[in-house]
Amino acid sequence: MKIKLRLRFSIVLLVLFAGLLHLHAQPLPTAKPEEVGMSSERLQRLSAVFKQYADDKKMSGNVILVMRKGKVVYHEAFGMRDIESKAAMPKDAIFRIASQTKALVSVSIMMLQEEGKLLITDNVSKYIPEFEETTVAVDKEDGAYDIVPAKRQITLRDLLTHTAGIGYGGGPAKDKWEEAGITGWYFAHREEPVGATIAKIASLPMDAQPGEKFVYGYNTDILGAVVEKASGMPLDQFIKTRITDPLGMNDTHFYLPKSKVNKLATVYSAYQDKPMEKSPVSGTMVSQGAYVDGPRKSFSGGAGLLSTADNYAKFLQMTLNGGELNGTRILSPKTIELMTVSHTGDIEFRDGQGFGLGFYVVEDLGERGIPGSVGEYGWGGAYGSTYWVDPKEELVVVYFKQLIPTAGLDDQAKLRALVYQAILE
Asked: What 3-state DSSP class applies to 238?
């Protein structure tokens, strides 16, 4: 009798587990554009323009996904995933999303705050002791610089808003960052855990005093190391078990499984007055990157993830829904609200925008001067990708390509104009 009961219980558990897997793996719902107040005819203008970018060899290819009111109304791929092998770009191509990783790590920090494992007002040194005393490099008139003590400790909120004064190694004390071998956003080739790299960063002179200036840099990589300390888990495992698996983001990884190599889009480079060319296999930022054959040791919270347009749209829709998708709650609505308002106050950032906890936030539409809405939030990645969420219009937009540098293309501006001209009600 006991054996039969155990067997029945095991079967029930298996059925429930299978149901959960099905729930998480389910695709995003779709709708005809007219069902959610958009125009099918006008959305096709996107197709004409972005197919032409590939046809004209200004980029190898791209994928665009547009959601409104929780449903996909446009999801198209153009051009080639790999020009040399004549592999067409599929809608589920996997891209290096670089700084779009920052949004997932920022959400991870807020999850830990919700669990009482940290507060964003905490000093970084509570989790990484090397940050207890930091320094700042101050330019001198003769081109040299002085190194002075930081006026106060750096907080997690400073890191979330990029106001910690930490750049990518190109500030006044550039020489010391270069000597340490820590410059640029690329970590995939590193043979050491990210925590070891971050501990070294603490000893280098920063670019500005904490809380005084927006300085884009290693802030979110440091937050990734904090996630590891506060959660007791490696960053890749935290994101997988707490965010990507629950949301059904099955093609989002720090390093690509060998079985998915044929889905990875190739990186190309476009330099001014030169034809587009395939980026080299080896190297750092302007290369294919060590995401397949690298050491797989350094999980960059600032720029390390690979993903698909569909996967990333699931994550963004979760934020638009107030922290929940398909019955899976990642954050509370109040935490999402806190993340998507400006925290930078009078600190200079961009016209009409402030910066929240991981995203830019639109505060004045006219001052910014491009289509959108007040309250819109988003960011982008080094390989030419971008995304934004417009709560007023219930809109999610994901755009992926693999082009670095981009030689001044106007594709992101045209994407925005063409998406908003398709909204009719």
From this structure: helix
> What is the distance in angstroms between the CA of the first residue and the CA of the last residue of the chain?
63
DSSP run (H or E) holding 185: none
Burial (CB count within 10 angstroms: exposed 0-12, middle 13-18, buried 19+), residue 199:
middle
What DSSP element (H or E) covers 111? helix 101-114
Mean pLDDT, rounded, for 256-273: 95
**Separation of alpha carbons 179 and 126, rounded Å:** 27
Alpha helices, DSSP H, located in 147-247: 156-160, 174-180, 194-201, 219-231, 235-239, 245-247
The 10 Å CB-count burial string (b at 16+, else e) for 377-407 is bbbbbbbbbbbbbbbebbbbbbbbbbbbebe
DSSP secondary structure of 296-359: -----TTT--EE-HHHHHHHHHHHHTTSEETTEE-S-HHHHHHHTS---TTS--BTTEEE-SSS
Instruction: Answer yes or no: are the C-beta atoms of 191 and 296 closer than 8 Å.
Output: no
Find where tokens 């989002």 sit.
252
Contacts of residue 6, defined as CB under 8 A and 6 or more positions apart, other chains included, come to: none
Identify the band that residue 12 occupies on the pLDDT scale cut at 50, 70 and 90: very low
d(CA 307, CA 297): 19
Report how far residue 230's alpha carbon sits from residue 219's, in angstroms, rounded to the nearest whole number: 16
pTM: 0.93
Residues 341-389: tens digit of each pLDDT: 999 999 999 999 999 999 999 999 999 999 999 999 999 999 999 999 9
Inter-residue contact 382 to 99 (CB < 8 Å): yes
Calpha distance 266→95 (Å, rounded): 8
Return the amino acid letter for 258.
K
